[in-house]
Amino acid sequence: MVARVIPVEPFDLVIFGGTGDLARRKILPGLFRRFLSGQMPEDSRIIGAARSDIDSAGYRVMIKEAIAEFGGEEKSETKAIAKFLDRLEYVPVDARGEGGWSELAALVRSDVIRAFYFSVGPGLFGDLAERLHSYKIADRDSRIVVEKPFGRDLASAQELNETLAEHFKEDQIYRIDHYLGKETVQNLMAVRFGNVLFEPLWNNHYVDHIQITVAETVDVGGRGAYYDKSGAMRDMVQNHLMQLLCLIAMEPPSQFGADAVRDEKLKVIRALEPVEPHHIVRGQYEAGEDSKSYREHAENPRSFTESFIAMKCHISNWRWAGVPFYMRTGKAMSERVSEITVVFKDLGHSIFEEDDKRHRNILSIRLQPNEGMDLQVTIKEPGPGGMRLIDVPLDMTFAEALGDEAEDVPDAYERLIMDVIRGNQTLFMRGDEVEAAWKWTDPIIQGWEARNDVPKTYEPGSSGPEDAMLLIHRDGRKWREIKG
Ligand code: NAP
Does residue 257 sit within a domain? Predict the structure, then answer.
């Protein structure tokens, strides 16, 4: 079975920052895969724009190299690559100056969908938005895509939102969080709202607790100085983890539409209780046998920035009253895993006399690696010897269930870019969501700053500081093992 590909309307996609890391590593290789799948109409074009003084031919060489370096199996499709490169143009443009803008205005067509990807630092968003209007390149139907970080606190996020709002309406702004583009994240909604089985159990009567883990094996490496200004809370929790929390906890929207879904997510963020300081563990990795410590990477021997965070949160509403949500994320951990785990409550009473174990249904939703879900159920251990119970997974790993079709599943970036062209904002964050998320995280960060909170150290390649284990052990629960 081959995945169904729905072509989009012809478009001109301008990538500001088209020579940067994100464009070369993710956006262009992703667009090439969409081209290969037949989703990109004949007369669509991608226009790179940055200050580098190259021409379109030079840009094509750069992107050919990027596909060779960052592409997957598709990098062997040399004929297709050549055809894809024909779709590329480049205009040298300075976001802060006037050079190149008239040339860009002449190039971008007005009779196709116009999308502008701001793959540059947020300090340039205002300049780009302003010039897109003053040079009449964008109109009311155009879309802009903006990248994280979307602010570093509530005030800066509000300022960014206001800057963009001067020139674009909310329905034109696509704030990308690539976690929302992942197949499993969307499947989470399909499983919750497309089956009769789960939703009746999705509440504090049946759910004991929920865990969200986003563990990375990489350390901050050469990005240390940049990372040191943000830390795990700003870099991961405020956006990715909170988005996952919203999807798992939200009420069923009335329909699968952008505002219906985002209204429900916003209600979750607003219902998040402030977190008690003793329900948060911050960590910083130490030096390993042949790896540097966080502080060495950050080139800041007195850095108090966290490279790991674990926290226990509560959502103050009828559905989730009393159900803890444990979240953790960190760098330099033992495995690369992103996973949401729903742990259901124990049976009130067991009819099986010899069974002294606690059997729990556990639904785990895996974003990476091996996107998929598995549901742990209790069955009789096969064979003689009486009624002995064991827990087995009902594995719903997509690669096995869907065969070839799963291999055609687009990567998060390419899927989201196609959603921009389609004008579908469901999987993008709305401005009020981003602000509500900062409103919740700001007091936590301010508390650390006021107290000069010192993160606990942890060994690289571990599951984080010991205190993160205690955070959940104190409640008689345990983290799911981090297994890749
Ligand atoms: P980068 O490698 O530093 O690239 C920045 C791009 O902006 C370059 O193409 C640069 O090209 C261009 N640029 C800089 N100043 C400009 C100006 N005045 N006018 C026009 N173009 C200008 O950064 P990146 O890693 O691609 O990241 C881009 C944005 O995405 C950042 O906000 C980053 O935080 C965010 N992001 C990146 C990643 C990632 O994986 N890399 C992931 C998530 C979010 P010239 O120097 O030629 O002008």
Answer: yes
